[in-house]
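I'll show one example:
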Amino acid sequence: MSATTLDWLVVGGGIHGVHLTVQLLSQAGVEADRIRILDPAPRLLESWRRRSRNTGMRFLRSPAVHHLDVDPWGLLSFAGANRRGRGAAKGLFASPYERPSVALFAKHCQKVIDDYGLSKLHIQDKASKIELGCDHALVHLESGASLQVNRVVLAMGGGPTRWPAWARALKEQGHRVQHVFEANSVLRPNSWPKRVAVIGGGISAAQVALRFADGEHEVHLFSRHELEKQQFDSDSGWVGPKNMRRFTETQDLAERRAMIQKARHTGSLPPDVYRELRAAIRAGKVHWHLGELQASGSEDGIALTVNGHSTGVDAVLLATGFESARPGGDLIDSLIEDHALPCAACGYPVVNSHLQWHPAVLVTGPLAELTLGPVSRNIVGARRAAECIVAVGRTG
């Protein structure tokens, strides 16, 4: 079977893949018939939509200037709000930093997708193997087709969901245990039994607990650490030179990895979610359990024990995030092994300032974090990555 030839293939139809494609089309002059987005989902941004719906997220953690269009003020203009956020009174934004509602952000995303005709560029398939030449890549798809491209961008995020061993054991015993970010799952509280445990102490766990607390459920939230209040998942100084200057000047990649880990407020809550959760705990709508958890299952249900106190529930929802392993799984593993692509000791790509891992391979999202720093996984990271990659696109 002959291979279709393209200038660009963006592997991943999420936040990073969509924004990068917009930038390549609008800022690098890439022709629409020379670029495609590869993603197995039926529509672009499907994973983001599903995850935000499952958690019950109402407002983004990112400010309104961080979105998928080119103009930083595009989302505010779309909302009919000025830069001082007068639209906040309409419930479109949350203070501080004019954080958009999920509904507004999703509508704006769809406008961007429609304006640039991105749905027509979407190939609903998955890469099974990538072969590299000196200046091109041959991407084999699970459908059996192949794409020959001048440059492929790996815009992959997420990875396998994190499951504690006890949770896997309960599921194997037939108990109802689900991860909130489980692939292709839709979380409907009204289909769940009355007594539900939510496992985790970060923003997703809090949002899920609050979503179930709005119904008739008896909600138990289990976390290993105290609830931590942080506006962003890393300090705002990482968006600009204040913190990034030292990071960029650091040549030791192990030190960069340590800086990233220290900078991230893993498992933290923005102040508005923190306040709402605390209020629900005080009102008895959410029962919070702090400490190391032990679990056992029987015909009567699931027993979760913390500090010697046992709580009976009928089902468990995991909001425990993703494994820390490098995204991309076997596809990236084989790419590294077959072509000896450089990696740091942590297993993540070593790329240049344009995020090139190979003349024909570029990266964004988590795979670019040793160059872009702690914000690489976020929307602002997508915008920063696009700035780097567009410079390559302009060279042809």
